[in-house]
Specification:
Length: 507
C-alpha cells in the first residue's frame, strides 16, 4: 500500500517536522491541522490545511475540524472493493493512506495539582481518537502512527518498499493505536469517576515492564506491569524476582516515613529493625540490634547515600537487596564483590514513589482502596500523665514503623530505634509477647520505652504486658468499647497514652 496522502495532527510535536519533510520528499501529499500546520509552515514544509481538504472551516475553537465525511470516508473505504470505490468517487473521497496523530495531553493535564474539572474536560480529545480508530480499523490499507518513537520505523519501511508499508507493520501499528485509545478513554473515565464520585466500573491498563522468572513460588508465572523501572535503577546483581519487587516496594514505603537519616531492614515485607542516626553505621547498628537473625537474606533500605564505612559494615551479612538514593564509588566497589546482591538506586524521593491506590485480587474480582499514605499523626493524650518530649518522640517513631508491620502489629521503640517487633499474629497480646521476647533475645531492655499498636487494644492485657516489660508510654488508635478500661489500666501504671484516631491494619 503505497503512501500518497498523509494526515498529520499532533499534540506532541517531537520529530514531526523531520517526518513531514521526509514524507514530502517522497512525494506524499501532506494534510495538517491547527498548531501542526503552523509548525510545518514555519519549517517551510508544504502542507495543506485540513479546511482546504474538507471544504469546511475549523469551528468551535477547533473542536470540530477533522470530524468530516471526507476525512473518515478517505480513511475507511475498502481499497479494491468495487462498491466502496464507486461510492468514494461519487462522494469525492480522496484516499488517506497515513494518519499521524497523538492525542491531547489529558493525563499530563490531570497530573497537575491544581487542575480544574473544566480544564480537564477541555483536554479530552475527540477528533484524534476518531481518526485513529478509523485508520486502525482499515489497517489493511491505512498506516496509523500514534507514537513518535515509530516515525523512523515507518520511514524505513517505506524506503525498503518503494514508498509502501508492509501489512505486518500496519497491523502492529493498528494494535498499538487501539491500545492507546483504550488507555486514553480509561484515564478519562477513571478521572471523571473519581471527580464525580459515581458508581461506575473501575478499569486499569498498564504496559509490560518485564516477564519474571516466576512468581512467589517457582510454579507460578509472573510479570511486572506499570512504570516500576522509572522509580528504580538496578546498578548491580541478578534480575529482580517477584518477591524482591514486593520487598523493594515495602521498603520504599517504610523509609518514606522518615526525614532524618534512617536505615531499615525488612524480611518478607515486614520490618526487622529500624534505626535513625546522622552516623549511618550507628543507624545500621540500631536497626540490626533489634533482630540479629531475621536480617540474613533480607532487604536493607536507607534514605541517604550508602558510603564506604556503611558498605563495609553491611557487607558482613548476606542480603538480597540494598536500596538507597545513591551509592558512593567506594561503597559500590565493596558491595559489587557480592555478585548476587542487587543494588537498587532510588531515582526519585521515596515519598514520590508511593502509589495512590492499593489493589488486591479476590475471588471473582478486585478490591480497590486509597493507599494508606496518611502522614499526619493526631496526638490526643487520654491519660492523666502527659508524655515527656523523649516519650513523644519514641511513640511517634514506633507509630511510623508499626504502620508497615503486618497486623496484628506491635512495635516497641525508643526515639531513634526499634527494640522489638511483633507481626502478623491472630491475637494482639501474642504480638506484644513476641515483640517482648524478640527484644530479650537481642539483649535489649524495654525499660522506659514506648509501645505502638496498629489498632486499638481490645483488652487491657496487651497494655499491661507492655507495662510489665518496662514500657512507660503507648500510642494506639483508640476506638474500643473497652477504651475506658485500657485508659484506667494505663493510669494505674502511671503511663502516658496517645490516641491517634487512625488505624493502620495491613492484611
Amino acid at each position: 500500500m503505497k503512501i500518497r496522502r498523509a494526515l498529520i495532527s499532533v499534540s506532541d510535536k517531537t520529530g514531526i517536522a523531520s517526518l513531514a519533510r521526509a514524507l514530502e520528499r517522497q512525494g506524499v501529499d501532506v494534510i495538517s491541522t491547527g498548531g501542526t500546520a503552523e509548525l510545518l509552515k514555519k519549517e517551510k514544509i508544504p502542507a495543506r490545511e485540513i479546511s482546504s481538504f474538507t471544504g469546511f472551516p475549523e469551528v468551535l475553537e477547533g473542536r470540530v475540524k477533522t470530524l468530516h465525511p471526507r476525512v473518515h470516508g478517505g480513511l475507511l473505504y475498502k481499497r479494491g472493493d468495487p462498491k466502496h470505490e464507486a461510492e468514494a468517487r461519487e462522494c469525492g473521497f480522496e484516499p488517506i493512506d497515513l494518519v499521524v496523530v497523538n492525542l491531547y495531553p489529558f493525563e499530563e493535564t490531570i497530573a497537575k495539582p491544581d487542575v480544574t474539572l473544566a480544564e480537564a474536560i477541555d483536554n479530552i480529545d475527540i477528533g484524534g481518537p476518531s481518526m485513529v480508530r478509523s485508520a486502525a480499523k482499515n489497517y489493511e490499507s491505512v498506516t496509523v502512527v500514534v507514537d513518535p518513537a515509530d516515525y523512523e520505523a515507518v520511514l524505513e519501511n517505506m524506503r525498503d518498499n518503494d514508498g509502501a508499508t508492509t501489512l505486518k507493520l500496519r497491523e502492529y501499528l493498528a494494535i498499538k493505536a487501539f491500545i492507546k485509545c483504550s488507555d486514553y478513554d480509561r484515564a478519562i473515565g477513571n478521572f471523571l469517576n473519581k471527580e464525580q464520585t459515581t458508581d461506575a466500573s473501575f478499569s486499569i491498563s498498564l504496559p509490560l515492564v518485564a516477564r519474571l522468572r516466576y512468581g512467589e513460588n517457582p510454579h507460578q508465572a509472573a510479570a511486572l506491569y506499570g512504570d516500576f523501572d522509572r522509580h528504580y535503577e538496578k546498578l548491580h546483581g541478578k534480575e529482580l524476582s517477584f518477591n524482591n519487587i514486593l520487598d523493594i516496594s515495602a521498603a520504599t514505603n517504610l523509609i518514606a516515613e522518615f526525614e532524618q537519616p534512617t536505615l531499615a531492614i525488612l524480611k518478607h515485607t515486614n520490618p526487622c529493625g529500624v534505626g535513625s542516626d546522622v552516623d549511618l553505621r550507628r543507624a545500621w547498628e540500631k536497626a540490626f540490634a533489634t533482630d540479629k537473625q531475621a536480617p540474613f537474606g533480607g532487604i536493607i533500605v536507607c534514605n541517604q547515600a550508602i558510603d564506604e564505612p556503611l558498605a563495609k559494615t553491611i557487607s558482613e551479612i548476606f542480603s538480597e537487596v540494598i536500596v538507597a538514593p545513591d551509592f558512593d564509588a567506594e561503597a559500590r566497589t565493596i558491595l559489587q564483590k557480592k555478585k548476587n546482591l542487587r543494588l537498587i538506586r532510588l531515582t526519585a524521593p521515596a515519598d514520590e514513589t508511593r502509589s495512590t491506590i492499593d489493589i488486591r485480587s479476590v475471588c471473582g474480582g478486585l478490591l480497590v482502596q486509597d493507599a494508606d499514605n496518611a502522614n499526619q499523626i493526631p496526638q490526643d493524650v487520654v491519660t492523666k500523665r502527659q508524655p515527656t518530649k523523649s516519650e513523644l518522640k519514641a511513640m511517634l517513631f514506633g507509630w511510623r514503623v508499626v504502620k508497615h508491620v503486618k497486623s496484628n502489629a506491635i512495635v516497641y521503640a525508643r526515639p531513634d530505634r526499634t527494640l522489638g517487633i511483633g507481626a502478623g499474629q491472630m491475637s494482639r497480646i501474642d504480638a506484644s509477647r513476641i515483640a517482648i521476647w524478640k527484644a530479650a533475645e537481642s539483649g535489649l531492655s524495654l525499660k522506659g520505652s514506648a509501645v505502638a499498636s496498629d489498632a486499638f487494644f481490645p483488652f487491657p492485657d496487651g497494655l499491661l504486658a507492655a507495662a510489665d516489660a518496662g514500657v512507660t508510654c503507648a500510642i494506639q488508635p483508640g476506638g474500643s468499647v473497652r477504651d475506658k478500661e485500657v485508659i484506667a489500666a494505663a493510669n494505674e501504671r502511671g503511663m502516658a497514652m496517645i490516641f491517634t484516631g487512625i488505624r493502620h491494619f495491613r492484611h
